Amino acid sequence: MSVQGNLEYGKFSDRLREEILKELLALANQITGLAKQYAPEATTHLRGSIDYLVREASVGIAVEVGSPVEYGAYVEFGTKPHWISREGFDALVRWVDEKQLDRISRFVKHGTTSRASRKVKEGQKYSQREKEIRAIAYAIKTKISKRGTQAQRFMEKSLRELGLEFQLDKDSNSMVYSVDLGEYLTPRMQMLNEKAAGRI
């Protein structure tokens, strides 16, 4: 899942190309910052992985903002109801533990936010705390199997806030928001030309 844009340079001077590059770097930085702001707090790994890449060639420039995290698209676009694999459940257990969601459950049930003991009693597989964490993870797993996950649209919100027009391109392996960089730059070209000429 990413935002991508390409721009062919055409017959631009080197100075104008430099100004265009600065403008597109600033845009990529803005999109990245907003995407990190809008990405759900629960997925700090996803939020921290959002970054941009600018590739320049003699004929043009390509800008991409996104995350290499494989579940980023699921957070952005949501999912249909599905069963979570054993590995997915283990990751969900770790997430519940990291977020200390068992404290909320204990507060609701017992009026305390202290965590249960991690000590495993003889003859048992899990400690009381692990049982509570796994029960919460199982409840989340069950909800996902019945309802799926809700789309967060953090990338889309970022593009809309910046007033960028985009289209969603889907293929068998990915979904990409495409932004027309030429359209973005058109109202800014006079200013960029003046900067390149040294008048600003």
Question: What would your notes on this structure say?
Answer:
By secondary structure, the protein is of the alpha+beta class. The protein folds into 2 domains: 2-75 and 152-196, no CATH class; 80-147, no CATH class. The protein is 50% helix and 15% strand. It contains 9 helices and 5 strands. A 5-stranded mixed sheet has the order 2-3-1-5-4. A hairpin with a 4-residue loop joins β4 (166-170) and β5 (175-179). α1 crosses α7 (154-161), α1 (14-38) packs across α9 and α4 packs across α6 (128-147). The chain is elongated. The two termini are 37 Å apart.
Largest sheet features: 5 strands, mixed
User: Percentage of helical residues?
Assistant: 40-55%
N-to-C CA distance: 37 Å
Record the strand order, biggest sheet: 2-3-1-5-4
Give the count of structural domains: 2
